[in-house]
Amino acid sequence: MRRTRVLTAVLALAAGLLAGGPPALAADAPAPASAPAPVSKAADTYTWRNARIDGGGFVPGIVFNRGEPDLAYARTDIGGAYRWQESTRSWIPLLDSVGWDDWGHTGVVSIASDSADPDRVYAAVGTYTNDWDPGNGAVMRSADRGASWRKTPLPFKLGGNMPGRGMGERLAVDPHDNDVLYLGAPSGHGLWRSTDAGVTWSRVTSFPNPGNYAEDPDDESGYASDNQGVVWVTFDESTGTAGAPTRTVYVGVADKENAVYRSTDAGATWERLAGQPTGYLAHKGVLDAENGHLYLAYSDTGGPYDGGKGRLYRYATATGTWTDISPVAEADTYFGFSGLTLDRQNPGTVMATAYSSWWPDTQIFRSTDSGATWTQAWRYTSYPERENRYVMDVSSSPWLTWGANPSPPEQTPKLGWMTEALEIDPFDPDRMMYGTGATVYGTEELTNWDDDTPFTIRPMVRGLEETAVLDLASPPSGAPLLSALGDIGGFRHTDLTKVPSMMFTRPNFTSTTSLDFAESDPDTVVRVGHVDSGPHVAFSTDNGANWTAGTDPSGVSGGGTVAASADGGRFVWSPEGAGVHHTTGFGTSWSASQGIPAGAVVESDREDPETFYGFKSGRFYVSRDGGATFEASQATGLPAGDSVRFKALPGTAGEIWLAGGASDGPYGLWHSTDFGETFTKLPGVEEADTVGFGKAAPGASYRTLFTSARIDGVRGIYRSTDAGASWVRVNDEAHQWGWTGAAITGDPRVFGRVYVATNGRGVVYGDPTDTGGGPGPDPSGKCEVTYRVTNAWGDGFQADVRLTNTGPTPWDGWSLTWSFTDGERITQLWNGAHTQAGPTVTVRNADWNRAVAPGATVAFGFTASGPPADTRPTAFTLGGQTCAAR
């Protein structure tokens, strides 16, 4: 319920990202310094999943396609875009292919689904408009519902995580000529148009107003001082004919005196709508063409956190009459309006949200008479008691209660906050979805509202993972995964496939910045983080299941980094606002550490309980007395900046791996075997940003190493089973997740398993495909495959594959193999995981479609480069057995 969304790409990554690229780390290996480490650039066979949290971040936009039922998209501010899959009642991520160098393109400022051709979808991407994001924005276009994308760079930046990101949609497809699109730009860049389905873009020079509103014009960082620009585009479909551009177009602008413009000649000329309200920003403009009503939701600020006053208006498109249809008097508002939607089956039904009503809760309003009268989701009976029209069921995501027990009128779980996305399914008046600062909620009983009958609201968020991950730990016993997250604190995962019952509580940190466990006593865990009030440190003696708050040294203002000694008897903490401190016991009192600068990153030796380490500004520090005193080591040649992460190897005292650096100085992976007195830079690792350890490979004695790095010119997630002498890339081009430089760890109990921290896509974990997935298909080989090319273009094609279990027994996991004949290569695949070696392709089940009953069919699809061969694959094998082909 944090009001100030963590700018993870800035606060966590500032040292590297603000310099123009993501930060890095370094480490070392026993390969000879004269030769580069051997590396396999081809991805190993890995299956990737999320450790389920379900949600966790702000969803500012939901878009239903108006031409095809059950087709919907969601956009997030830092975690990409998603498509709703009705068959599984879950969301499918669409932008995992965004790579390290384009990390800003995981922020989605707008999304548009083409109702005339539902296969087409567009996303306007870019995270920040100031220099926090070094790259410009882009418009991504897909002809296969987001399974694959092409990108057009823009000559300016876009702000998926900037103020005003809940307004929109800024991107819109002309319903009559779907080669025409408009894009509202921030930063004074005005209105842009494409006439070739998003391939090229040009500024609409006749559009008169680029906007002038900024949240805080005096903000020197450029974050709050940027002009929020042109914020939405709406077509009046009653003013056009098929094949010709729509004549009337409405555009919203971030200008309190001139918020709404209209063109009646397909964008050739524009005029300010006469008589419009002033003193407010129009967050949304939604048109009911059947009745000739343009509805507008106004707020006095751009959101998504702020907003103290607001109004709802209805504009009669035929007469130009404005009507204030606000459900409450202006004097009674303490919020702005933003979420706005129509029931397309019953256009006189309109709904809106009080998006910035933080306390005691958000409010949702509904009218069935075009705004003449309203009812609301909840009301006071006798203050502070309230009566709700709805019932909240968060059993699928129980952490949404925040472990709270508030006093009335506040309730838990809340109806929401930051509720700028609100949509009624255009084909189903009973289904509504809305986004909050932490999840997507929805109901399929919406019309119960009008009968004054309770309806149930549930999370509709499975598959949408939007947490920013700041630290990870995988202890040798207890829960396999502990996570430190922005905005919602962190979780203890006892089962990676299930949503944990609760985040870390008592105390609740708004963001956990660092956590650690005692290597020889994994039940002892410490975490530190940001909090509005109270201690910034907490301890657990039961592996993170329960917590006790510690106390802060004087001056602490933020979490920083923390380390637990190998035996759990000592802790060293480097908080924000104060220098490095140490304690024995559980932090009832702290003493200042000597010889180490404030702000140093701290870690512990995993074998010697008296030894701790630190790093700051190119110097490595060592304490051999439990953190009381540190001395700078003699190590030289380490990264000069502070974008460094390092870890000590479990089981061996004094062995350290260090990753980090920047492009203008030392950057890579370093290794020390003498308690950090000297480090050797690993040859062949050009850049590295994280380092972690997992279980040793079968027959190997050294723990498996993992890193997010650039090796032999290729960015990726890498694994070494021979102490860094050689590396294999374990992710592929379809699984990159933007910036992955915050944390990485292997699992000490499962060989090959790796947990990767992302900046907005949650905790991603991978397993070698040949070690998981259950017993595999029916050994009788009774199966049937239908392979069908569904679309083709000059340099690629799309295909659908249907696999049927024709045998008598169920499958628990499946793996289908075939060979291409003409050089085709898969570029993206959905509803499964794939590897390709030369012409041979193997597709394995996803987590959710592994079980296939006798007679049942499972389907997956893919896009590939190269023209489809005249002779399509006809030989398919399932677990080594031949399938019938159709």
TrEMBL record:
CBM2 domain location: 776-886
Identification of the protein by name: Xyloglucanase
Database matches in SUPFAM superfamilies: Carbohydrate-binding domain, Oligoxyloglucan reducing end-specific cellobiohydrolase
Alphabetical keyword list: Carbohydrate metabolism, Glycosidase, Hydrolase, Polysaccharide degradation, Signal
PANTHER family: OLIGOXYLOGLUCAN-REDUCING END-SPECIFIC XYLOGLUCANASE-RELATED, XYLOGLUCANASE (EUROFUNG)
InterPro entries attached to this UniProt entry: CBD2, CBM2/CBM3_carb-bd_dom_sf, CBM2_carb-bd_dom_sf, WD40/YVTN_repeat-like_dom_sf, Xyloglucanase_GH74
Alphabetized PROSITE patterns for the sequence: CBM2
Pfam family, one: CBM_2
Residue spans crossing the bilayer: none
Gene3D superfamilies noted in UniProt: 2.60.40.290, YVTN repeat-like/Quinoprotein amine dehydrogenase (2.130.10.10)
Family: Belongs to the glycosyl hydrolase 74 family.
Signal peptide range in chain numbering: 1-26
Native source species: Streptomyces prasinosporus
CDD domains, per the entry: Sialidase_non-viral
